[in-house]
């Protein structure tokens, strides 16, 4: 693939991650490397923005787009790790097909895509950052928010959004125990709270 030689020398100076390195990490790397590869693939290539643009063009809502992003992320991770991608196209092209097919399959199965927002009470003054970040309702925006305090935090919340326990996160990210993974999550949450206080526009968006 372009940008990565047979000797293993990466020729992409911007991130150091090209298609071949990402696939190799997902199929053969350790848990921490796999998580880093997925973060590079989805967030450094702006798949939240791409999925949002596609879904809105199809008549969906921002909420539909955020939900669909999670589906695309999980389907892509599964496909690449199981070796379904054969390298016949660029990886971005393959993900684009997953995005389209998954959306059209939902429509063919007549699964509801457009839904009226549920009535909800006025949000509390202190946002529950953890619950917001684990919510599928705004996953795209919230992963972008997590990225404001570093890729390490974004990975923790990414794995939590997939339902991983702290023990599983510890194994994937190289923490020595579940307790340390949970402690790092707590630090990330505190950083996010400070970021939201300093950036009212973000806080308003989440409400």
From TrEMBL:
Record GO terms (molecular function): DNA binding; sigma factor activity
Pfam families: Sigma70_r2
Xref: Gene3D superfamilies: 1.10.1740.10
Record domain RNA polymerase sigma-70 region: where: 50-111
InterPro entries (alphabetical): RNA_pol_sigma-70-like, RNA_pol_sigma70_r2, RNA_pol_sigma_r2
Record flagged with keyword Acyltransferase: no
GO biological process, one term: DNA-templated transcription initiation
Keyword Transcription regulation in annotation: yes
The entry's keywords: DNA-binding, Sigma factor, Transcription, Transcription regulation
This protein's name: Sigma-70 family RNA polymerase sigma factor
